[in-house]
Amino acid sequence: MLPTSEPPEVLPDLIAGLVDDGRPVARDIALGLLRRQLGRVQGRVQRAFEAHDLSGLGAARWLAALTDGIVGAIHTYTLAQVPPQEAGAPSEETFSLIATGGYGRGVLAPYSDIDLLFLSDAPLGPQGRRAVEFLLYLLWDLGLKVGHATRTISECIEDARGDVTIQTALIDARYLAGNRAVHDRFQDTFAAARKASGLAPFLAAKRAERTTRHARYGESPFLVEPHVKEGRGGLRDLQTLYWLARHAFGVQRMPELVGPDSPGGGLLTPQEARSIRRAWNFLWTVRFHLHYVTGRAEERLTFDLQPVVGARMGYTRHGVQDGVERFMKHLFLTARDVVRLTRLLEPAIERAALGPPAVVPAGDAALSHAGMALADGKVLFAPDRQVAEDPAIMLRLVRAARDRGLEIHPLAHRALIRNARYAVTLRDDPTANALFLDLLTGKDSPRWMRVLNEVGFLSRFMPDWARIVGLMQFDTYHVFTVEEHTIEAIGVLSALERNELNEIAPVASELIGQVQSRRALYVAVMLHDIAKGRGGDHSELGAQVALELCPRLGLSPEETETVSWLVLNHLLISATAFKRDIDDPKTILDIAETVQSPERLRLLLVLTVADMRAVGPKVWNGWKATLLRELYWRVAEVLAGGLSVPERDTRVARARAAAAGLLETMAKPDLDRFLGLGYPGYWLSFDPDTHARHAEMIRDAEADQAPLTVRTRVIEARSVTEVTVYCSDHPGLFSRIAGALAVAGASIVDARIHTMTNGMALDTFWVQDAAGGAFDAPHRLARLSVLIEQSLSGRLRLDQEIAKLRREPARLRAVTIPPRVVLDNHASNTHTVIEVNGRDRPGLLHAVTAAISGQGLQIASAHITTYGVRAVDVFYVKDVFGLKVENERKLAALRAALLVALGAPDVPVDSGVRVV
Questions:
Q1: Do 758 and 889 fall into the same domain?
Q2: pTM of the entire structure?
Q3: 826 with 895, same domain?
Q4: pLDDT in tens, 303-316
Q5: In terms of domains, do 574 and 625 share one?
Q6: Residues 859, 911: one domain?
Q7: DSSP classification of residue 385
Q8: Nearest-angstrom CA–CA distance, 230 and 110
Q9: Diameter of the chain by CA atoms?
């Protein structure tokens, strides 16, 4: 990994410009020369890299080598500028200038630090200290970021013994200039010290450091905004392998570990060494692009940078995949390779350096018969077993680890990775398929599925799985790649069975113990996104995959049909709960007609919860849980044969009677007046408790002759705050309230709008804060009420205030959300249903509802859902006569107005509109 060339030819010319006939030029002249040379160096590397004449690794090495020349020239100039204090006195310049860290490895990123060590036998005297100070200030004045230390050899050894970071930096120590003998003595002493301490302490420290680093930057190599340097599967993981090999064997490059005569006896195959180089090169290329695009030491590949870097690396659209998605898949596959290479090489280095583990018989006849043994208390293949001769032993080993609560030995991981290709032979093996199904549906299944995925077994065992590995969706809603999301969903299913989510998802936790098709449920979760990335409806394509794969896994025809149906309909519950009015009887009846059986409804609800919880930590909240729960019970009642949707008049009468029962203490004239205010839709939209609260609110408002009444109620169980507004109805009321709520920082998640028989509006909004929780701070609730009053009175300039609201971060703007409008006259018997899709922004709901009101339509209810930066808002509307909007001319005008409202300045309004 170290450059083999000497510093380039620029060194003599540069030195000649800095030191003329042994006399240094003035510092300002030298600084100008150095700045011009540094600019030329950086420009040469950037031009060659961006012209694709250099790979990332080649550019990193060349930049380091060119920087060596500049640092060497500065060192020569420094010695000329800092002579002995007394004429004729001997020079004290005894230090060695050494590169450490990444610069010491001979690779340098455009905006990375230059780490230097001023090394000496004894503490530096006045001249040496002045020289160090002069050299550092010159580097700083050049605008370089310099990490530095001044130590003696003994201090280095002592500091390295107590600090693994220093020890790691010194492993990369490389001579630049100065006293070479000091450098050579240090290398000999440091090598002896490493040998004396052994690999074990260093290995333990690097593992602990890696664990901490992964916890900070990402435990998964499949996060959709990865940290290229520090995240799992990133450059630092590869560097850790190099440090271990360097510490244990003194090798400079990974290919030195190939072949029977290499240190350790051939720890890598030629193919594995090539994989390391490919990963190293690819990640360095990404890193260079990141630095050049941002103009800083940026290591995180955020959404806004992904399409830019992907395009610079030549990734274009192929088939159904965008260039950015192809680029990110390559990155994720590279990260996966780094994880595998770590599991493959690290235990081999450990054993080659520390000796083979003490392999003992399993002490368990069944385990021994299955071909297993134990080492360090962990399970591995018995020495006399060859995976190539018995590929199913891979699954038996994982099952043995699960059943006996054992860890898989690192050497077994190594064997699994090297032999994963034999999984192909198990596809039609009934015994192997039964083993796999047992692992999928058994204890701690996500843990073992992740093992099988990381070692590459799943991709060989199920070709369809290979197509989703590393597949990302370029949006801000999904946190993981498709296969990692799937394993997370299996984990949610397992957690539900262990009753760990009782408070978060009580209904799903209860139902999972009642399902009779448990195996089908687990397989459906595994396959629910299996057909993503193929173009077309992934639910329909996935259902076909299920029909082909399930019989192979050993599922019965009934189970196979159930899995296929679940995959086909896995979005039905969530789409209905969040996009449709579940108080509309037709909504419930439509789902009941599709589901048809209580068992399927239970399975679908549990699958929906697992899918949503696995998307990311911010997707699930109490409000969504409430909507799913209410939808489930209403459909379940229909399927059970109950009269959940009796005749409308009967239901209205029941609701009025229930409300009257709670209002026994109210004066009869007030009660009678309230009972006559609501149209049927109002009585069917709320429970009796809410009707009672409305009655008291209306009574108080009329007694006070208040033109506007605003009441708020925090509902902790649902993670929402209910805002009820009672005032005179007029066109655009919803829009003005929505605008006021946006200015207050509240996000609307649901709304019910009702005009009473007295011409007053009784509008109810359920809102959350930016974090997805209840809007509950007293001062914010008070401000919210004031803003609604100011908005309705015209004293609040909504457009100006909304324009001041914080916009989304730049990294999210790269995600394109085309505006889309769907007008549906079949989803409801009484209303036209409008669905709008577009980029979420402050005040979007205000703009959209203003457009609807501007077309003379009345909004009966609104259902607001956000998926990352995508807003999906659904409105149930009628015209001024209380009828559906069916006139084509009116529909055309409506869709045009909505597209204008959706078209933020940075989003072109060129999307189509679908009419259902």
A1: yes
A2: 0.79
A3: yes
A4: 889 999 999 999 99
A5: yes
A6: yes
A7: -
A8: 17
A9: 114
